[in-house]
Amino acid sequence: MIPEIGYFSLVLAMGLSLLLCIFPLWGAYTGNLRLMRAAPSLAVGQCLFVLFSFAILIYVTLTDDFTVAYVAHHSSTTLPWYYKVTSTWGGHEGAILLWLVMQSSWTALVALMSNSLPWVLRARVLGVLGFLGVGFMLYTLWMSSPFERLLPYYPVEGRDLNPLLQDPGMIIHPPLLYMGYVGLSVSFAFAIAALLTGKLDNTWAKWSRPWTMVAWGFLTLGITIGSWWAYAELGWGGWWFWDPVENASLMPWLVATALLHSLAVTEKRGVFKSWTVLLAITAFSLCLLGTFIVRSGIIVSVHAFATDPDRGLYILSFLGVVVGGSLALYAMRVSEVYSEGRYKFASREVTLWANNIFLVVATLIVLLGTLLPMIHKELGLGTISIGVPFFNQMFSILVVPFALLLGIAPMMRWKQNQLPPMVKKWGGMLVLALALTALWLLPNYEYVAPMTFIAIALAVWITLGTLLDIFDKASAQDSFANGLKRLGLSYWAMVLGHIGIAFVIASVTLTSAYSVERSVSMKPGDVAQLNEYSYRFDGVKEIRGPNYSGHAGVVTVLKDDKFIVELYAEKRLYDIGMQFMTEAAIDDGFFRDLYLALGEQLSEGAWSLRIYHKPYVRWMWLGGILISLAGFMVVADKRYRRRKIKGAVA
Amino acid sequence: MNKKLLGFIPFLIFIFLCVFLYQGLFGNPRELQTGRIGQTMPSFVLPDLMDESKQWRDTDLKGDVYLLNVWGTWCPTCIAELGYLTELRERGVRIIGLYYEQAYDPDFGDQFDINALRNEVQNMLDRAGNPYQFNILDLDRTLALDLGVSGAPETFLVDANGTILLHHTGDINPRVWRAKFAPVMQELSE
């Protein structure tokens, strides 16, 4: 009975969503204020029903109700309770329900926080969000209900959650990613509402900016955690695989990054208007496309989600309606847009324009690399595979001009700059960046490849440029301390974001260039040496967890005969699925990670072990966290709060 | 160009993309391996599973139609199809095994006990039936990789000139044989 209530609650939510889609849009079209005013309560209502439905799924999972197919396939009695909760988004149906939770919550949040928007715009934004809600709810109810029953023959024990997903990183990775995807639907809704209204002025840009920033912050964090999860859980120390599923989240991120820079130009200067709208549409379209790629099985991926052509067809149709519709609308409206602003070549406008070009090119590379194998096959040209080298090479070329620009971009002013004094400053910066890089790398590493040197110099260059700009801006005020205080949160967000990028570039470069690994066969007492660390194998002990058993290799790490850490590299056999899982042991550090994976038992007490030494790998996720902080910080900026208070009074 | 027309470019690109996505939906991405069909058998030199001193080359296999069956004792489906494959052998089909060892990872520096494996294989074939003329041991998986093998069991039908005619993923049973292999065999014998 209870699962049926969950399903029914979702039906009600869809009903409200349908009204949310029709009433305000119709009201805005006919100028009927009463219809428009219904939007916020409908938005909150549909959200409550979706939340209730999700609560019921959690309840049936916690109570081990294996008559529900989803629970039987993704949970088990022995699963710890927190993984039971997370198993509600470990499978396809539940993941889509989680998406719905996010979608409806964002919609309700927009409804509650937009009371200073003009009604016509507010109604249209909520109407568009309502339409998206209907699309996803219909999909859930029709094709992927998590409340489907296995009656009358149901199992007494569930199939358990995929062991790969039994990890803290995986608990938060999908929700964060969905927060990002769905958050971008808000930017999308603002863009569509602006197109419908026909007023592509900077109002919509101003409004959608904080939402876009937060969505982008979540997306950044989601990707970062995903990378960390892959590193910690897959057992061979990789952190990015250019897998279609990863690319599906990277593409919206790249476009969203372009979007939030472009939004700044549109808000402040009233130019790039149509381009910004197009980016907003593209960012969300890529989220949908990513979902399609992941869920339809159109591309073979190591992530191998449940695939089903019917589901794929639905998502593709939905994609066609949403994206095709908005691009058609864009095409019809865009010719009416005129830019008023004027700017010279050496200006912030042009710098941001170049930033957009780089990010869009990067997106196209990822899109091409992801879809080309499929298109190639459909054209009857046979199968090709585009692998990691393609992406790596493309990105290492693209990062050079991008990072050069990033280093000087914050110093550029709107409209026009005097180039000669700036060029002089940049020359000094360049010399300093090269000197610092040499000081950093040459004493520490025997061999420095030219590309490594260039990449690190670029990371230093970005950092120097950002710091120099803080110094310049702060000293322009009466006193340096006052000047620092005057810099707004948005400015500090930019600083964090850019330095985060520098961290990521440095980390990717150094980890790729200087990681070392060894595969060894060890008996208890054996010592293996890797770089300055020695690893003493102390033997293997049996372990027993709630739903797995296995072995843990105990390894003592020593440096110059001094004890550093004792590591337990586990090999687990999960009871129900009989799946082997490697739980790598990681000693994390700011400058290096020691990473240890237990392999097979060989003969007479010998085990195979893989030892990795990964310098600076942690900086990657540190950088990711810094970047996402930038997204969250902007929301707290006074500029956005003040307007809200003013709006509430008016 | 006219600004109005320019605005339609994103829309057109999207439509173009949708056509491919739609087609891709009904194509099977797991048929990647069919790329091997019509090509000749990749060249290789690999040892016999049971006798290390014996080396098999791709040229040794030519001259007669054969099935190349990728299998391993670790793979339950492979064991299950041994019975039917043996029946096929008795009916005169030439079957060559490509032994795929899962426990051994070439990138991993594992120790490997060939004698234990030989005993295991012999026991298994004694018990479940031996359809193989001989078995090739592809420890480093080079041939499996060249053939686009994604798992076991998989079976290739190769003609006397060494051209790959069929690639089947999954077990061979009477139904699969009748539907997929028998017509091609028929054609070859005519």
Automatic annotation (TrEMBL), chain A:
The keyword Cell membrane applies. Belongs to the CcmF/CycK/Ccl1/NrfE/CcsA family. It is a multi-pass membrane protein. GO terms for molecular function: heme binding; heme transmembrane transporter activity; lyase activity. The keyword Lyase applies. The chain crosses the membrane at residues 6-29, 41-62, 96-113, 125-142, 178-198, 210-230, 250-266, 278-306, 312-332, 353-375, 395-414, 426-442, 448-468, 489-514, 616-636. It comes from the Bacteria. NCBIfam families: nrfE (TIGR00353), PRK10369.1 (NF007691). One of its GO terms (cellular component) is plasma membrane. Required for the biogenesis of c-type cytochromes. Possible subunit of a heme lyase. Keywords: Cell inner membrane, Cell membrane, Cytochrome c-type biogenesis, Lyase, Membrane, Transmembrane, Transmembrane helix. Pfam families: CcmF_C, Cytochrom_C_asm. Residues 316-638 form the Cytochrome c-type biogenesis protein CcmF C-terminal domain. Its main location: membrane. It is found in: Cell inner membrane. GO terms for biological process: cytochrome complex assembly. This is Heme lyase NrfEFG subunit NrfE.
UniProtKB/TrEMBL annotation, chain B:
One of its GO terms (biological process) is cytochrome complex assembly. It comes from the Bacteria. InterPro entries: Periplasmic_diS_OxRdtase_DsbE, Redoxin, Thioredoxin-like_sf, Thioredoxin_domain, Thioredoxin_ResA/DsbE_sf. The chain crosses the membrane at residues 6-26. Its main location: membrane. Keywords: Cytochrome c-type biogenesis, Disulfide bond, Membrane, Redox-active center, Transmembrane, Transmembrane helix. GO terms for molecular function: disulfide oxidoreductase activity. Residues 35-186 form the Thioredoxin domain. It is found in: Cell inner membrane. GO terms for cellular component: outer membrane-bounded periplasmic space; plasma membrane. It is a single-pass membrane protein. Coiled coil: none annotated. PANTHER family: THIOL:DISULFIDE INTERCHANGE PROTEIN DSBE. This is Thiol:disulfide interchange protein. The lineage of its organism: Bacteria, Pseudomonadati, Pseudomonadota, Gammaproteobacteria, Alteromonadales.
